């Protein structure tokens, strides 16, 4: 069902939702067609995430994703989105080195990709300085703490974070540091709901949860998980609203059967000559005499 089109969602509009107690709805998208569907359904924020490495490009994690990969998918999503705020996910090693290079990379997402902001993982002192530099360059930043997939090697896998009092206090501090650095919102990934609630209550900026329980100011999920595009394992926090893997698989199988038995295409799916033209072709074919071959 399509939502009534509204004006473009802005960062101040997202922040106002928190103040008004309205939930923020976010999804990932990686192509024009899906982004149009999401946008027309009234989703507030579209993230072109480095999750495309796993659900689109077939990698086992997000680490191989490049700037060019994100830009390639960001452009069509930005063209499709008329209402939603579009954010580009900065991939691994695109912002981990020289600060000037990181700002330049983020700027490409705005200038070339059409995004309205970028997402950056982590809240180390160096990361906080970079966020300040990006905000100074008028590049809005969506922060991200908890399970940060680009740190999966250091974290020892995709595990829930903040389960001890020490780690929970660290996450609360990191979220507050992101707010101080100028982030416009923060993603909380795979942390206990109680910790997410404490962070949400402490911050003036919105929190957007993924595997962080119902107390966040908004929620985000990977589109492919939401609609059941792929089969196999899904994290505990995913709610599958459709089973497109089965629907598409059935459609493709029926297409194959139809082609093999000669049922597709039929006359209705074919172009046809007008009867006079066909008659003329047949007449000329029958009247033509072929030269005989010499023995």
Q: Can you characterise this structure?
A:
The chain has helices spanning 11-20, 32-40, 52-55, 67-80, 99-111, 125-136, 152-155, 165-181, 193-202, 223-226, 244-260, 275-287; strands spanning 24-28, 45-48, 85-89, 117-119, 141-146, 185-189, 207-210, 218-221. It has one domain: TIM Barrel (Alpha-Beta Barrel), CATH 3.20.20. An eight-stranded parallel beta barrel has the order 1-2-3-4-5-6-7-8, surrounded by seven helices. The radius of gyration is 26 Å and the shape is elongated. With 295 residues, the protein is of the alpha/beta class. The N and C termini lie far apart (74 Å). It contains twelve helices and eight strands.
Strand content: 5-15%
Structural class: alpha/beta
User: What is the count of distinct domains?
Assistant: 1
CA-based gyration radius: 26 Å
CATH class: Alpha Beta
Q: Helix share of residues?
A: 40-55%
The N- and C-terminal alpha carbons lie at a distance of 74 Å
How much is the average pLDDT? 94
